[in-house]
Amino acid sequence: LSEAETELTGAEATLAEKEREQQIASDRLTTAQNSLNTVKQESDASKKSASETSDSVAEIVVSTYQGDNSVTSWSYVLASQDVEDLNQRASAVEIGSGVQEAVLSAAEVERAQNANREARQNAATTRVGTLKTEADTAETNAKSARDSAQTKRDEVAKLTAEKQTAATELENRKSDLQTQLDQANADAAA
Hints:
Number of strands: 0
Structural class: mainly alpha
C-alpha cells in the first residue's frame, strides 16, 4: 500500500506537470492563431489598397503608352501664349508628374509591404502548425498522465479496501482466538 501511495504521488506530480505543459502549449497556440488572424486582416486590407494603387499605375502606363502625354509633355508648356500662361502650364506639368511619381512610389512601397506581410503570414502559419502539433502532443501526454494517475488511485483504493478487509478479518479472528484461549484456560484450570 505504501509503495502504491508513493507511485500515486509521483503520478499526480507528473499529471500536474503535463497539465501545465498542455496549458502553456495551448496559450502559445492561441497567441499564434491571434497573430495569424491579425496578419490575415492586414493582408486583406493591403490587397485592397494594392489593387487601387495598381489601377492608378495601370492608368498612367496606358495613358503614356497611348501617347496621351499632353499633361507631361513640355510642348504643352512651351505652347503658352504669355508668361502667366507659361507659369500655369509649368505648374500643371509639375503637379502631374509629382502625382505620377507619388503613385509609382506608393505602388513600390505597397509591393514591399505586401511581400513583408506575406512572409509574416507564412511564418505565422508555420508557427501555428508547429504549436498545434506541440499542443496535441501535450494534450496526449496530459491524458496519459491523467489515466496513469487514475490507475494509481484505483490501485491505492483497492489496496486500502483489502487492508481494511484484512484488518476486520484479523479482528474477528482475534475475538475467536481470545474465546478459544479463554476456553483453553478454563479447561486447564478445571
